[in-house]
Amino acid sequence: MLAVPPSPLPSLALLPEAAVVLAPGGLVLVSSPPADELFRCTPVGRSLADLVTDPARLWAAVEGLAAGAHVAAVPLEGVRADGVPFGLDASVRVLEGGGVLCVLRELDTQITTSLEAAFDHMPIGMALFNADGQVVRLNPAMCALLGRPAEEVLGVRDQEFTHEDDRAADVDAAWRILRGEMHSWQCEKRYVRPDGEIVWTFANLTFVRDEYGRPLCWVGQFQDITELRRLASRDPLTDALNRRAFDAELSRCPAGALLLLDLDGFKDINDVHGHEAGDEVLRGIAGVVGGRLRRDDVLARLGGDEFAVLLPRCPMDEAASVGADLLALIAARRFEFDGVERGVTASIGIAPVGADTLAAADRAMYDAKAVGGGRVRIHRAL
């Protein structure tokens, strides 16, 4: 049976600080309300080993001390109920019977004065997060990246601003770091601004500990690479997606329709009027096709005079209507070269998104071209 202090246990109900009373064996006998908040649970009835990772450090600090003795600060690593570690300083007083009163203070996560100027003036986004992932400080570049003033970000978890498709990877990486499997995390991730705009960043996240190995904070660096990704994924002539970026979009699309467009008469313009004329046609056709599409639709130039249009969540009857509209818009677009008005038509193949999407749409497109072009053909599964 555990020994408990023979004197009446101190009441901690009105104490404004996190505090617990421990029996000699480490069982929590009493706790203050702030301690419940600190550990995200009720400590009473739990062992000290459930609340900190290094209970032996506390017992070593008070070993051999008489009742009434006080230790100003024992460095500890606390663990919240959800498993998140955090740094603690424990002010400890030895009680009659061998128990102890511990007043607990979570470590401050503010940066030192000498680093403040560099932090605030860094040209890339920087942020400090507490052990729970809440933003405790950020610089102006980070505010600009998120499109939000500091007061809207402070105290909020990074996940709230992260694109929903990137959240799981962030959480998994954070736990791997906390478990000691790796020391930092680098990745490309997306933030979502208040107006819905997507910002791509290269993120570098590190978990910082003090000289005792206790958690202090997360430090994040975030570089806006939106324009770099756009340039890397775009066809430089038409600004449509390139083949590599299109393949990635198609692989992520769960359902919808794919349209493949091949221009009829383009080679003749190229041969007669030169490649600059051909380039003008390609830019013009990309413009009229892009102007017909929805915000979530994808336009890509696959090479030469072949374009692809991906229509996510679009049924085939609507896709056929889009194909007919594009056919008319392309035929109506006129160009003038060497005083001669020229135009092109398109052969369009349509197939539902699935395992053989690209090949199926390609077969339908060649069916349209085989009968003279300027037509839409829909792939019909056998």
From TrEMBL:
Its EC number is 2.7.7.65. Residues 185-237 form the PAC domain. Residues 111-181 form the PAS domain. GO terms for molecular function: diguanylate cyclase activity. Residues 254-381 form the GGDEF domain. InterPro entries: Biofilm_reg_signaling, GGDEF_dom, Nucleotide_cyclase, PAC, PAS, PAS-assoc_C, PAS-like_dom_sf, Rev_trsase/Diguanyl_cyclase. The keyword Nucleotidyltransferase applies. Keywords: Nucleotidyltransferase, Transferase. The keyword Transferase applies. CDD domains: GGDEF (cd01949), PAS (cd00130). SUPFAM superfamilies: Nucleotide cyclase (SSF55073), PYP-like sensor domain (PAS domain) (SSF55785). NCBIfam families: GGDEF (TIGR00254), sensory_box (TIGR00229). This is Diguanylate cyclase.
